[in-house]
Every structure is written in C-alpha cells, then in structure tokens.
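Friendly challenge for the regulars: who can give me the structure tokens for this chain first? No prize, just bragging rights.
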Amino acid sequence: MSEGGPLDERLARLRDAVEAARSIGLEPEAAAARTVTRRVGRRAGFGGELYVMALAGGTGVGKSSVLNALAGETVSEVRAVRPTTDRPLAWVGGTRRDEVAPLLEWLKVEQVVTHDRPDLGDIAVLDLPDIDSVRGEHRALVDTLLPRIDAVTWIVDPEKYDDERVHAYWRTLALHADRLRFVLNKSDRLTEEEAHLVADDLRARLVADGIPRPALHVVSAIRGDGIDRLRSDLAEAAHAKVIVSAKLEADRAEAAKELAASVGIEPEDGYQPLLRHDRREALVREAIAGAMTLVDPDGVGRQVRAQVLHRARMGGGSFVGRVTQLGWRLIGGQRRNADPSAYLLAWRTRGALGRVLNPVRAALVEAAAAVPAESRGRILDALGAPSAERDLDAVLDRATQAEASGLEPPESLVWPVLGAAQVVAGALVLFAVAWLVTLFVAGGSIPVDSVGVPILGPIPMPLAVLVGGLLLGALLTWLLQLHAGYVGRSMAREIEERTADTVRAAVVTDGLAGLERVEAARRTIAAALD
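First reply, four minutes later:
Bragging rights claimed.
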C-alpha cells in the first residue's frame, strides 16, 4: 500500500492508465482522466477517510503540550527544557492504525500511541521533530509530507510567532495554504486584550505571507483554553473529509470506468483480450504457415546440403571431380542450387506476402471490432493495421537477412586429407597409364610382372596399378560424399530449425507487436478499476 493511503494507490493506478491510453492514441480520453487525477490529487491529502494532521513548530513552543491537551491524557513527554528530537510520534485511533501504518513506516515512526476517543477516532496526529532544528532535513520532511497528509498545524507562542526565519519558510508553503493550520499557544501568559492583539498581528502577517484565510486558534495547553474549540474544528474537518473522500473516490472510479470503456473493458468483466485465445492462435498459425512457405526452410536446407557437398568436392575431390565442380560453378549451378544465403534473401520470389498479411490483418481488424466505434479507428492505428503490409515485409526481411548473414558452411579437416589421398590415387592412375603406353610402344619387348588375382588369374602389373588407382579414387570419392552428406544434413537440420524459429518469432513478436502493445495498455487500464 502507498504511504499516502489507499486512495493514493488507486490514483497512481489511474495515472498509469492515463499514460497507457495516451500510448495507444486515446489522447482525448486520457486528457479527461488526467484532469480528474490532477483535481483529486490536489484535494486528496492522505488518501483515505482518516484525517491525518502533523504538528510542527520550534523548540519550546509546546507542541507536546498541545497534543496532550487534545488527547486529554499524556501522549508525549513534556520537559522544562526539551531537546531537539529526531523521533516523530503518532497518536491515532486504535481501529485506524492499520490504515496509516504505511505512512508511519515511511516516516520511520517508532513510537505510536493509540486511543479510543470517539470524537477524534477519525484523526491521526503526527508530532514532528522541531522545525527550527539546525538540521535542514526536518524542513525537507515537511515539504515532502505536505502532499501526503491533510494538514500541518503550526504551533507558535507569543515569543516566537514573529520570527522572520519562520515566516520566510511559511511563504514557501503558500501553495499549500489550504492544508495549513496555526495554533497560538501559551495564551495564559497574555491578557485577553494582548491575546487578541497578538492573534490579529499573526493573522495579518500570515496574509502577507501568502496565506489568505489562515485557520488560527488561540489556546493555552496548560489551562485548556481554546482546546475544546480546536478539538471540535478537527472533528468537523475529519467529518468533512469523509464526505470529500467519498466524492473524490467516486470521481476517480468514474474516470477509470470511462477510460476502460474506451478500450472495450466492462467493470464487471474486468480485462478480457480483444481476441479469444483460440482464434488468435489459429490466425497466428496461419500467418506462420504462410511465412514458412515464402522463406522455405526445407529449401534452405537443400541449398545448404548442396553447398557443403560442393565445398567438399572442391577441397577433397579428385582432379576430375574438381574440374567438374569448377565447370558447374561457371555455368551458374552453384548460384542456383548451392547458395542458401541468396535463396533466403530471395523469399519474395516464392509467393505473395498476402499469405502472411491476410491472417495478421484479420487478427487486427477483429481485435479492433471489440472496442467502441468512437475509438476503433485510433485503436486500429495503434494495432498497426495501416502499415501492416510494410511492417511484415520489413519483419521477414530482417529475419531472413539475420539468418543469411550466418550461413557460412564449415570447413572440415577430413576433406584436405581425402584430397591428398586423391592426389596419390590420381598419380597411380597416371603412372599406370604411362606404363601401359610405354609397353604398347615397345611392342611387348619389355617384360612385366603379373599379379595373381583370384578367379581372374594373373594380371599384368601396370593394369593392376591402374585398376587399384581407380578403385582407390572411387573409394575416396564415396568417403568424401558420405562425410559431406553427414555434415550437410546436420548443418541443414540446424539451419532449418533456426530459420523456422526466427521466422515464427518474427511473425508473433514483431508482426503482432501492435496487438501486444494495445493489450498491455488495456491491462494497465483495467488495473485502474480496482
């Protein structure tokens, strides 16, 4: 609970609701509610039916004596020479202590005295530290406290009432004149005529300080003169506050109700989303499916696998294989079939944006239909309906660019090893071919050894080397394709999943950002109804 009381807490929620309404374009409705918050805030004081008054004054003016006289019992110890104290004291009705507890905790009031006086049951009195203390934070305390309570009653005496330093401070509080009361204590030290003269002089000086109609009581805390009248006036102020508080709360509640109605919230129902959950989820799934068709994560995966295989063949393939891949690249095969980044960025070529736009636009239009007609157009603007097509195009573009920037296939240490082995296999084939050519030119005059092969029998060594080189090259090519396929599939799965997640998040988070913003504002506005 706020230290200013329950009304302050509700008023703070209404202020938040005003800002929420402004954030979604409901400026006239927000302005009307803001006027109410300012009026209620200026008049509210302590935000509740309890009338909270602080006693302030300089050392020795008799604050404690006045409090004891009001209470009809000893509440605060009175000393002949009272030292400056940093410890405020509270006197409050026992049944109302919980209501003022947050304020007392904020003030760090450790000494709380409760009472059961029926005439002052709706009054809480705070005995503040001496205001003419050398410590400036005591005055700062009063400055901070004034907006949170109903009144500050300044206790003065005939000796200190005309202290220019005190009057200079009072002039700074002129804006809070309606929250200030003044008590001229120790009237027992004056004759009746002197008391009238001092009171008139004090009243005139207060008017000059900018307090046009000062509430002034002349009392003697020791004899009890004027205490009954002061007590009666405080009781009347407390009673009047109950009436004013009820009116202020009614104004606040009505402003909150009107603000809620402008965004389609009924007080008896509380916050309800503009779109039913199942309907929203169905439209979101449709929009995501449309986005997936355009982005095509499966196609991206195929491009990734082809790119990995191409790189593997260029880095670890045979001489013939590398030449083949180079020719394939020159005729544009890589650009068309093995460039996942380019494939991603070309998502617009795979269909119309309407596959994503139509369900999103349907969600926004149906959501706006749930608010009153007079605010529907502005809610549609806040939802982002007019710019939905441009926004979705930008959303998908950002998502695909983000993914495309990270689509660099990996290099494998296996491919250079297999490439070196392919060089050896190629060398064996070339050696065998040269050997066979030499034998052919020699007309069989050069003897050669043979290798015994089961079933086939003896095979000339050059032919065996040729066959062995070709078989080794084929085996290495198979191993290269096997490894490249594994790497390509693993990377493709990861990229497909990541691309799908990115697109899904982009549609939900960015594509429907306006709907989320409006719903967040509506939840804040609904909270002001409590």
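The chain has a mean pLDDT of 83. The radius of gyration is 44 Å. Your move, everyone else.
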